[in-house]
Write a structure and sequence with these properties.
The chain is mainly β. The chain has a single domain, classed as Coagulation Factor XIII, Chain A, domain 1. The chain is built from 1 helix and 8 strands, in the order ββββββββα. Strands 1, 3, 4, 6, 7 and 8 form a 6-stranded mixed β-sheet that branches. It has a two-stranded antiparallel ribbon with strand order 2-5. It starts with 10 loop residues before the first strand and ends in an 18-residue tail after the last helix. The mean pLDDT is 83.
Length: 132
């Protein structure tokens, strides 16, 4: 996991976070890479896969996929990431790494300038809703 401009221990809520997957396909061409993010209470906060955000291009022998958590998508909290890899056609699960990475989201950006972390309620961050 990487975050441009990251300072300190946690990931700032106001910057995107990239989750980079380097995959040894072992000859498989129709793979699906997915990720689950859950909070410290065990609640699944986000679940997604590359099959909803790609053109179903086949994987090469060594492929890289990048999943981006957008700014303000997560509230201040500790989270756990579970990546999985399977066959897109058959649904066969090749690998699932339960809670492989633990990480923390800390207050940052406009949210930190206008309020305290304790003021934001809910699982998602304060920027998930847009106002017109």
């Amino acid at each position: 996991m990487v975050q441009p401009g990251r300072e300190g221990e946690g990931f700032s809520m106001h910057r995107p976070i990239e989750i980079i997957f380097t995959i040894d396909t072992r000859g498989q061409k129709v793979l699906v890479c997915s990720v689950v993010i859950r909070n410290s209470q065990g609640v699944w906060v986000h679940h997604g896969s590359d099959e909803f955000h790609s053109d179903f291009a086949t994987y090469s022998s060594a492929s890289e996929r990048v999943c981006v958590i957008p700014p303000y998508a997560l509230n201040t909290e500790n989270y756990y990431l579970t990546p999985a890899l399977g066959n897109r056609s058959t649904g066969e699960l090749f690998e699932k790494l339960e809670d492989a990475i633990g990480f923390e989201i800390v207050l940052g950006g406009v949210a930190s300038e206008r309020t305290a972390a304790a003021a934001w309620k809910g699982v998602c961050g304060p920027g998930m809703l847009t106002w017109a």
